[in-house]
Task: structure prediction
Amino acid sequence: MSKFEQLKHRFDKITSNHSQNWQLVIFWIIVFEIFATLFEYMFVGNSTAFIIKIQDSIAKEFFIGLYFTVFLWACVYNFIFWNLTNLLWLCLIAITGMYFIITNDLTLNLLLHNLFPVHYLQASFSYIFIIELIFKLIITYLIYQLIRTLKNKNSTPPAS
Result:
């Protein structure tokens, strides 16, 4: 096996369990999209234009408190009932919380803006563009893995 095939084999094992676990694929798609958005927020100057600032209010504090409470509940639940799916949800809640803290984008407007690749056509060609393109290629491959996983799930006969 060549090094590329070994790398692909390991990547498929981590991200989709070789096209067997659709929840794992969705988890990694969301994680890579959040990291791509954080990268764009940190290194692209006009990304703050897409963030809708929410004024400090009781509703914002309630949202933050509720989010933190759900995170703590998920931690305790995962320590009691150790399960990979619960651990993935816990990691997703933590990564999304980091996104909220770093960008202050509680409306997810920047994340939604980053989903559409059309804005890359307006950007100049630089190392930032290349890294974001790599993120999008990985996400595209993960979407392909998701389609394969769902196809495998639908084609297997139910166990009797």
The chain has six helices and no strands. The chain has one domain: 18-148.
